[in-house]
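Q: Convert this sequence to C-alpha cells.
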Amino acid sequence: MKTKTDNIQNKVDLLALKRLNILSEKNEKIMFSSLWETGQVIIIFIRHFGCPSCKAHVQSIWEQKEKLKDKRIVFIGNGQPAMIKKFKEELETTDLEIYTDPSLDTFEACGLKKGLRYLINFKSMKSMIDLKKKGYHMSAWEDEFGDKTQMGGILAFKEPGLLLYHYVSNYLGDFDDAESWPKD
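A:
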C-alpha cells in the first residue's frame, strides 16, 4: 500500500542528490546529502539571486525566524557563488545559510520546473506587478545571478534522506508559507 510519503519520494531523485554537490559562498563543494545528516532541514530553492520574488520570499521567511528557530532552513540559488554575498547584502543579513548550484543538477533532481512558459505567463506578470507595488524590483541583470527560467520550490528532509515535503513553484512568485511545512 502506497502512502503519501511514497508518492513524494517518487518526485525526487534521492540517489542523484546523494552524489551531487552544491557550492558555498567561497566556492567550496558541499555534498547536498550533508544537509540532511543532522536531522530535519527545510531547503528552499530560489530562482536566481536577482529575482525580486525570491528576495520577497526569503525576507518573509527571515521575518519568521523566531517562530522557525527549531528548524534548519537552507536556501539554494543557481547563480555564481560570489552572488551569495551580494544577495545577503541586498537583504541586509549575513545569517542566512545559502548555497548555490549553477549546474542546476540539484534543481532537476528535486523535480523543479524550468522553462519560459513558467516565467512568462499571466500569474508571473501579476506577481511582478504586486511585488513592484511592495517596493521589490529586479536588480540590474548580471549573468552571474543564475538562470532566469528556473523555478524554485521547497523540500523538507528528515535524516537519512527521507523526504517529508515537496512543493514545486509553477510561476514567478509561487511559493507556500511556513504553515504548510512539516511540524516534526
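The helical segments are 4-9, 14-19, 52-62, 82-91, 105-109, 116-119, 122-133.
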